[in-house]
Amino acid sequence: MNAYTVLLFIHSWLRWGVVALAFVLLFRAFTRGRGGAPWTSADRGLSVAFTAALDTQLLLGLGLYFGLSPFTPRTGAALGAAMKVAYLRFWAVEHVFAMVFAIVAAHVGVASAKRAEDDATRYKRVAIGVAVALVAIAVGIPWPGLPYGRPLFRF
Question: Is pLDDT larger for residue 66 or for residue 17?
Answer without folding.
Answer: 17
